[in-house]
Amino acid sequence: MNKNTRPKIGVLLIGAKRFRALGEGTADGTYDERKLGEASVYIDRFSEFADVVYDGIVYEREDVERTVNLFFNQRVDCIFAMYLSWAEDFTWIRFLREMPPMPIFFASVVRDSLSIVDTNDENQFIDFLSAGALVGVQEASGSFQRFGRPMCETYIGTLDDVCTRFRIFARAAHVRTLLRRTNLSLLACYNEAMWATYIDPYNIFQKIGPEIHFLSVQELTDEIEQVPQSLVDELTNHMSKTYRMMPNVDYEKFKASVRASYAMEQIAGRCDTDLLVLNDIDTVLFKYVGLRPGFTPTNKDIEMVTVPEGDIGGGLATYILQLLAGSNANFIEPFYIDHANGGFVAGHAGPNDYREAPENVVIARDERFAKTAWKYAGAPFAWYVFPAGMKTMLHMSEKDGRMKMVCTVVECLPTKHYLASYSHANFRHPTLAPEELFNRILQHGVTQHYGIVAGDVTAELEVLAGLCDFEFVKI
User: How far is Cα 384 from Cα 411, in angstroms, rounded to an integer?
Assistant: First the structure.
């Protein structure tokens, strides 16, 4: 799944049929000519952040029918709808009736300034009629509410205000579309030690969209045997030159870890997997593979998100953050509160996307399993310190058949490698003591897993939660 795609939006602009020809011969032209110029401004602004589907101002029933068909056939992510002034409401009501369920952003743009001083002047009178968007949006709001359509938002503001808010709405609507086209793969099972992370796969498909594929350890072992030694040598040579390596790394176990990581990507790729949820502490995996794959992604261009411990909710949180932010996301669990320094420490063992900051990567022995009896005990992994900066932190899990999102913004502090076997960093909340932060989180019931990504995308998360009927909490 390409995380850098733009939203595709349908634009519905409704004009007044009975005003259309008024103003002929005036300085600013007819109502229709004025509205065409206005519409051009809107289309240009929306085109800055989205691919626009638009076929002219709607005046007639035929315009509605054509527009509905256009939006449906073009598979737009959402619709921007607006009355350009007062207008007859037969077009709007017909549109609400005919358009299949779809996110709709119903807006009204407030002019930055007005120059109406004497409507005895015909040019100003037409401008007065043209400026009456507040009349239109009020009239249309009644029908909007009576239809009770889901996935809708109403907003009034200047063009800058409207574009700022609509950009967030459109991005969230686009992620909703991407989720409905997503392939999720589970290798090979839920984590039997962590029942709280279990999610109903049918519920996921019905309410969010991803198709779920179940991959087996047998598939993985078969694929491992097929990976050419020359390719393994090429990958390990590249990684050893790109990243620092601890002196106690066993190079043959390094190759085994890279081989298994590459093989896992291959079997996932055959299912067009966008999100791979790996139960990396499954004893079956250790028995037959001998390690947990520690170097996915093996290629800088791989878009697939991989998360550990068989947690689909944690995987969805990480994947959604990556889609919204357009940058690599990471999977964490908060380990402990650092009371003296007013923060907390978080990270996770197992696979974690390490491409954002190559300088923060060390190829290190997996100390957690170094003294076990498994074939490749201590096989190395990409030991990563998350880059410093503000991060959105998101938890997702299921309660009573409904997904919940609990999110906040935290600062990831500059951190040195010090937690062996765990990609990690030190964190703090901008305003809350860590005890207060987690007191508030616990009130909503979570598991221990979160996704993090650079920047603040909590506004987009809130819109997405509304579009998907998730419970949403921002702390």
Answer: 17
* pLDDT band for position 132 (cuts 50, 70, 90): confident
pLDDT score, position 2: 59
Q: In terms of pLDDT, which residue wins out, 193 or 71?
A: 71
pLDDT at 120: 81
Look up residue 59 and give its two tokens.
Answer: 């005046």
| Dihedral class, residue 316 (left if φ above 0, else alpha if ψ from -120 to 50, else beta) | alpha
* pLDDT of 67 higher than 60: yes
Largest CA distance in the chain: 93
75 CB-near residues (< 8 Å, 6+ apart): 8, 177
User: What's the whole-number average pLDDT of the chain?
Assistant: 95
Rounded Cα–Cα distance for residues 258 and 228 (Å): 12
Fold of the domain built from segment(s) 8-179: Rossmann fold (3.40.50)
Cα distances (angstroms) measured from residue 460 to each of 72, 245, 371, 392, 475: 24, 39, 45, 11, 15
Q: What is the CATH number of domain 182-474?
A: 3.20.14
- Domain residue ranges in the chain: 8-179, 182-474
Give the DSSP letter string of 246-312.
Answer: -TT--HHHHHHHHHHHHHHHHHHHTTT-SEEEE-TT-HHHHHHTSS-------STT---EEESTT-H
**Whether the Cβ atoms of residue 208 and residue 315 lie closer than 8 Å to each other:** no
Q: What is the mean pLDDT of residues 152-173?
A: 98
Render pLDDT for 4-50 as a digit per residue (tens, 0 to 9): 689 999 999 999 999 999 999 999 999 999 999 999 999 999 999 99
What is the Cα–Cα distance from 387 to 358, expressed in whole angstroms? 10
